[in-house]
Amino acid sequence: MKKYIIGLGLILLSITIGNAQTKAEKKAEKELLTTQEFKNILKVVKSKSYEFEGEWATTQGGRRVNIFNNTNSLKMDGSHSKADLPFFGVVTGGGYNLSPGIEFDDDISDYSMSINQKKHRINIKYKVRSKAELYHVNITVFHSGRASVNINSTYRNTMTYDGEIIAIEASK
């Protein structure tokens, strides 16, 4: 009986050792996948034809709100940007012409994009005006297509949105 238990243990041990990947192989496979994902999302961002779909909004005070089921987006189409995002925060000044959410539909200015190949990250910054406000938009895109959008306004507290970048089809 003792021989059978020892034999079974050796068989199980040899099976697990034979099927296991080394740590270096796993790391290399993950790096290859990450690099390929990064190349794909970089191509989308460089085309300047994409849409950000928000899932979470975070106020300056740290309150996090699920906005997945709401209609919210930020579109980039060449040198034009359009946004319709909810706002949860404090508005200071600005009069009565402010919309309840963050809304703009205009050409952008001061556009810059920086690429961090090592961390597989893309940072995009630009300014855009609405009828009554100037918005500073900062987008951080990760290799997986996930993104964080930080919007600062002349009259509102800063808002951060977490979501996903999606390519806009050429037919739209």
Topology, element by element:
Layout: H1 2-19, H2 23-46, E1 49-58, E2 64-66, E3 73-77, E4 80-85, E5 102-116, E6 121-129, E7 134-142, E8 146-153, E9 159-167
Antiparallel strand pairs: 1-2, 1-3, 1-9, 3-4, 4-5, 5-6, 6-7, 7-8, 8-9
Structural class: alpha+beta
Order of helices and strands: HHEEEEEEEEE
> In which order are the strands of the major sheet placed?
1-3-4-5-6-7-8-9
Instruction: Name the CATH architecture.
Output: Beta Barrel
Radius of gyration: 23 Å
Helix content: 10-25%
Question: How many helices in DSSP terms?
Answer: 2
**Morphology:** elongated
What is the residue-mean pLDDT, rounded to a whole number? 86
Beta-strand proportion: 35-45%
Instruction: Assign the CATH topology.
Output: Lipocalin
CATH class: Mainly Beta
The biggest sheet, with number of strands, parallel, antiparallel or mixed sense and barrel status, is: 8 strands, antiparallel, barrel
- Give me the count of strands: 9
Distance between the termini: 72 Å
How many domains would you count in the coordinates? 1
